[in-house]
Design brief:
mainly beta, single chain, about 375 residues, three-stranded antiparallel beta sheet
């Protein structure tokens, strides 16, 4: 398990855990510059576990053959100014719960995503590539958010805000990606609705050879040649999704902007999707069966409850300590010394009671060794 995946598993456990009165004040506030992720008091655990400035609540559970991704929809990186001249909406906390299979399978035919969310990023923000803008309300001619004729107010992470306040990505989430790290190793940046992983644009030159070096993976789509036969007319110029066509072998990726190969998280190989700087930016189809939690509308669109939360979820947004901190104090008395392994090293502390009455290893101060 990579340090990044370990960090994901710890994230939900680190928000305002120990000391009563610490504020769960995440969200965004406006400054004279870009809107920045709001600072708030952090717990000692959060201090040890690295960048937590947005307190983006992301919880990833595994149960009954599924992976559940729960979040409040707030990005854990700086965003553009919202509302702005081209996007009048303000970022709001939106509770998302998505479900994907732990062991996805590929179908014989691809499934078009339509206007569903394609997947969810590791910070809990949806990947939602389609727009709601059409030429003369004709759904055959759907304007693109990137490179289209309308400025939809996208920020530097290729994201903007829906009328309900949901921040979502239309392309590569630059604020989420550590560019240097992503160029050293393929970087997991989310999960598709069918359960297959999503990676940043860089992958092994030879898909099955992790020693072959990294390259920027290329989409196999290109602009059609000539003039549009109907609809708005004019030449194909990338304004509409239908201006592009898939050409097998034109790039490194298949019709759904994915391929099979090795990654750090899947050393034996897996099918995975890739976000690219060129169309389709975010894939427009799935190779597996998409879970209904990614559909939009009443009862869908990220509102599914996970079995981990039914009947016993904390309602104040606070989560408990990591399991390692609890295990470190099993059979010990309050006040005794303890130690547990964290993603960035070992943490020494004391066994103390936390909100639910259980004993957990609370950091005693100083950086992990």
């Amino acid at each position: 398990m990579t340090s990044q995946m370990r960090r994901l598993l710890y994230l939900p456990c680190l928000a305002a855990v120990l000391i009563p009165g610490w504020v769960d004040a995440h969200g965004l506030h406006e400054t004279n510059r870009e809107i920045q992720a709001a600072q708030r008091p952090v717990t000692l655990w959060e201090w040890f576990f690295g960048r937590m400035e947005a307190a983006a609540h992301v919880r990833i559970d595994q149960a009954a053959g599924y992976r559940y991704i729960e979040s409040d929809g707030l990005p854990d990186h700086a965003t553009g100014r919202f509302p702005n001249r081209n996007n009048p909406n303000r970022i709001q906390r939106i509770e998302h719960t998505y479900r994907v299979p732990l062991e996805p399978t590929q179908n014989a035919r691809e499934q078009d995503i339509g206007h569903a969310a394609f997947g969810v990023a590791i910070n809990g923000v949806p990947y939602d590539p389609a727009t709601a803008e059409f030429w003369q309300r004709d759904r055959r001619w759907n304007y693109e958010a990137i490179g289209g004729p309308y400025n939809l107010g996208l920020d530097s992470s290729n994201a903007h805000v829906q009328p309900n306040g949901a921040y979502h990505y239309h392309g590569i989430p630059k604020g989420l990606i550590d560019a240097d790290g992503a160029r050293r190793n393929p970087m997991l940046i989310g999960w598709a609705a069918d359960g297959f992983p999503i990676y940043a644009p860089w992958g092994y030159r030879v898909a099955a050879d992790e020693t072959s070096g990294l390259v920027a993976l290329r989409s196999s789509y290109r602009l059609k040649e000539g003039q549009r036969a109907g609809g708005p007319g004019g030449r194909y110029n990338g304004q509409f999704a239908s201006d592009f066509e898939y050409r097998p072998g034109h790039g490194d990726l298949d019709k759904c902007n994915g391929r099979s190969g090795k990654t750090p998280e899947f050393p034996e190989g897996t099918y995975y999707y890739v976000l690219t700087g060129d169309f389709p930016f975010i894939p427009r189809c799935w190779v597996g069966v998409a879970d209904a939690s990614f559909r939009k509308g009443p009862g869908n669109g990220g509102n599914r409850s996970s079995p981990m939360d039914r009947g016993n979820a904390p309602r104040d947004g606070r989560r408990g300590p990591p399991q390692e901190a609890l295990t470190a104090c099993e059979g010990r008395a309050s006040g005794t010394s303890c130690r547990f392994e964290a993603p960035h090293g070992e943490i020494d502390g004391q066994c103390r009671k936390v909100r639910d009455g259980s004993l957990a290893c609370v950091p005693s101060g100083g950086p992990p060794r």
